[in-house]
Structures are given as structure tokens and as C-alpha cells.
């Protein structure tokens, strides 16, 4: 069966620079079925869903629904205590906090601007459990998310892996199965259970796996590609040590500055190109040429701002 995911995989479409952009994630447990726009088409009160969307707009906060893997009967689950997580993904101020609530309407009192800026305002308590792996499974948005994502989430759960949730939408259906790993905020595509287990083991050790990585949601897409290129070329796998501190230019070409906490800096040239030949961006959609982020060069910059070394980076696809 030909799907958007098989087409993307067969064409070796690059993953870097394709993650959804959000500095902060607000995740609300909501069992039962999800529609294509889950915040307003699930068993969450649609008025509440619309209000949360409005409150988050322009703040850097992205709101998503989560549920435990397994069967999701079409029934309303009223009066239950649900998990709520808030995660900030900007290096240097990365945190993941959680709480339980039986009244999700209370979430409208959150200061979304503060959350987007990295101030949790005492929300909940620090998450001390396993890293969270959020697997996109919303088949109402794209069948690949259900066909590939739900078996992955189930496999991970059945193998005893903690912290596994299904999530409503991470973007990039054609890279299914996709997932977001918290607390660090790196997204992955074309994942399998073995890869996810290795990725979560690395997170526990404070490391970032770049294989299959789409980027850190804290950065815009040129920055996502640039940071991953620095990690690969400089052999940096420690989490929380690289930041995108400057982006010059605009589509189709950017110069991105990536800084290490030890003082090292790199200047990364990123070009936006069209993915060819045409392929569907989603199952059932017309053929298109989605934008891709290609890293052309990674230059290490001396403390005085001069270039010390240039590494030419080959592009994929």
C-alpha cells in the first residue's frame, strides 16, 4: 500500500529541520476518540478547547491532547482525574512539570505568555519519572499516524517502557511514526521501538540521539537543522549545551550561529529547497514539493569572530 510515509521514505526525504515549533508544550490527558482538530473535536469540551487555542496563540505554547496507548472506545469519560504536563524546551532553562486535575477549565488561568517565556509560575511539580515519549497516533489527521504510530506506542508499552503516551499532532505525517521526547524537546521520525528505547536511554543519561532526529522544537526550522549539523560534525551529544543564538537572512538561505556553553561557536549555512520529485505531504493530498532544510556548510568560529574551519556538509535525498 502506497502512503505518504512510504513515498517520503523511498525518496529519502531528509528529516532535519522538520520538527513542529514550540518553546513550551501544554499536554492534557483526554481519552476517547480524537478528530482531525482534536482540541475541538474530542471529548474535551470544545469551548474549552477553543479557549485554550486562543490563550496559547502567539505565546510560543503549543497545546496538545495525550492518552495512554490501547483501545479507545467511543465513550465519554467524565469526572476523572487527568494528567497535565507542561514542558519548556529551550536549552539552559529546560524543565518538565506535571500535575493532576479533575477540572481542566482551571488551565485557562495559566499565564501562557510566562509559560512560553520559560517561567512555569510554580505549575505542578517537577517530573521525576521516566522521560516522556509522545507518539503521534491521530488517524483522523492522516492514516499513517494510526497505521504506524499506534503499533509503535503499543509495542513500547507492552515491552514495559514507561512514559509512553499517544499525542494528537506533531506535524509531518509523511515521517510517521513520529514522536516528541521530553524534557529536551527533540522530535523524531521513521522511528521503531528499538530506536525509541535507545533514544530514551540516552535522555536518561543526558544525551541527545541525532539519528532519525527532526530537530529541537525550541528553534525555528533553519535553527533545528543547524543545531543537528553541529552535533554531527563536532561530535556533541550532551543535552542542553547547544543554543541557536543568531539567525541572519531569510528564505531561501540563512546564516545560523550555534553556541556551546563552553564558549565554542559555529556559523552554519542553511538553504531551503524544494523536495523533488513531487510527493504527497499527507495521504490523499495532491503531489507537492515540501520545503526541506539543507545544511551547506558548518564553520567553527574563533572567539574573536573569525572563521577557523569550514566543513562542507553533503545534503541528503
Helix count from the secondary structure assignment: 6
- State the separation between the terminal residues, measured CA to CA: 22 Å
Helix percentage: 10-25%
List SSEs in N-to-C order. Answer: HEHEEEHEEHEEEHEHEEEEEEE
Main traits of this protein?
single chain; 317 residues; alpha+beta; ten-stranded mixed sheet; five-stranded antiparallel sheet; 21% helix
Structure characterization notes:
- The chain has 317 residues and is of the alpha+beta class.
- Helix content is 21%, strand content 31%.
- The protein contains 6 helices and 17 strands.
- It has a 10-stranded mixed sheet with strand order 5-4-3-1-2-7-6-8-9-10.
- It starts with a helix and ends in a 5-residue tail after the last strand.
- The relative contact order is 0.16.
What is the structure about, briefly put?
This protein has 317 residues and is of the alpha+beta class. It has helices at residues 4-10, 46-56, 112-116, 143-158, 193-204, 221-234; strands spanning 24-29, 61-67, 82-88, 95-101, 125-126, 132-136, 164-167, 179-182, 186-188, 213-216, 242-250, 253-260, 265-274, 279-280, 287-288, 291-301, 307-312.
